[in-house]
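thought: user wants a sequence for this fold. calling inverse folding tool.
action: design(structure=
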């Protein structure tokens, strides 16, 4: 049957040790399987794996058995994308046409600003995040949204789209 282990963390010679009592007394020849879930913080610079030293011993055994286990490091972070448009609602007139050759913004349509915020909800830190944002710019061979500029804040960089401000407005 499945039982919960009673484990006690402690520090020993500068190392963190977790001592778990598996059974007392245990019958001769008994075989057990133990699944452990460990939560370790501060692994940002540890590479792809960390090593745990496991030591199994019995009070009846004269020599303890030692082994090392290398565990792949799996970083988890929950990312949340929030966005809004300013103004929130835009109604375009059905008979509106842009003024050809004009460099004035108002001659090309109503200004709509889309703002997106990417938040890391943790528990781990992240780096090198790539966000692909697809914006429909044409509908039926005509401009739906004229993409004027793309900007960032907070130390991020963006790759500009090939269709960004094609008419140099």
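)
observation: tool returned 169 residues.
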């Amino acid at each position: 049957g499945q039982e919960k282990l009673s484990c006690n963390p402690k520090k020993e010679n500068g190392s963190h040790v977790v001592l778990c009592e598996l059974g007392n007394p245990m019958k001769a020849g008994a075989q057990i399987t133990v699944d452990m879930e460990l939560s370790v913080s501060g692994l940002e610079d540890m590479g792809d794996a960390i090593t745990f030293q496991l030591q199994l011993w019995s009070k009846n055994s004269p020599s303890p058995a030692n082994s090392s286990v290398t565990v792949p490091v799996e970083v988890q972070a929950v990312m949340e994308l929030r966005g809004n448009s300013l103004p929130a609602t835009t109604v375009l007139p059905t008979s509106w046409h842009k003024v050809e050759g004009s460099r004035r913004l108002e001659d090309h349509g109503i200004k709509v600003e889309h703002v997106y915020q990417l938040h890391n909800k943790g528990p781990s830190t992240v780096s090198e995040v790539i966000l692909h944002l697809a914006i429909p710019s044409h509908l039926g061979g005509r401009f739906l949204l004229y993409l004027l500029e793309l900007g960032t804040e907070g130390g991020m960089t963006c790759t500009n789209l090939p269709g960004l401000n094609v008419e140099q407005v």
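thought: summarizing for user.
answer: Here is the designed sequence. Residues 6-72 form one domain.
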